[in-house]
Design brief:
It is built from one helix and nine strands; from the N terminus they run H-E-E-E-E-E-E-E-E-E. The N terminus is likely disordered.
Length: 138
């Protein structure tokens, strides 16, 4: 009886994983370093500031959260289709895929449109020093 209860608990725990796989997007190496003092990235020095940079599949959106972790970075390629246009961000709380109008949260990349299963791909951001960040997927 005790083993049965343990088995049920283990099955329940492993079935509650967040669905953040991106089956449609190919895996590519990302390693981008950003100097926050450059004019195109100056907005990243303030909370809620954001900027776009090259890298990834369709570019990368970088955000200053004002919280910990301070920076977040998302792939601009739409995770649920093979749209050739990058997702757009207008400073609101969502990124939007122009091909099907699907939306994704900038807080955690979660899909905000019914029927979409995949999260926006989030990259790791490491702050090297006060004026330099590095974005990777490894």
């Amino acid at each position: 009886m005790r083993n049965s209860i343990l088995l049920v608990i283990l099955v329940f725990l492993f079935s509650c994983e967040k669905n953040d796989t991106n089956d449609i997007l190919p895996n590519i190496s990302v390693n981008v370093t950003i100097d926050l003092n450059l004019p195109q990235y100056i907005n990243l020095q303030t909370p809620t500031g954001w900027a776009e940079t090259s890298g990834g599949l369709r570019g990368i959106l970088v955000l200053n959260t004002g919280l910990t972790p301070l920076y977040k970075a998302y792939e601009r390629a739409c995770p649920n289709n093979d749209c050739s246009s990058p997702m757009i961000f207008d400073g609101s709380l969502k990124m939007k895929c122009s091909c099907d109008n699907s939306e994704y949260s900038i807080i955690d990349g979660s899909p905000q449109t019914a029927g979409n299963l995949h999260f926006a791909r989030e990259y790791r951001v490491n702050q090297i020093n006060p004026s330099t960040i590095n974005i990777t997927n490894f």
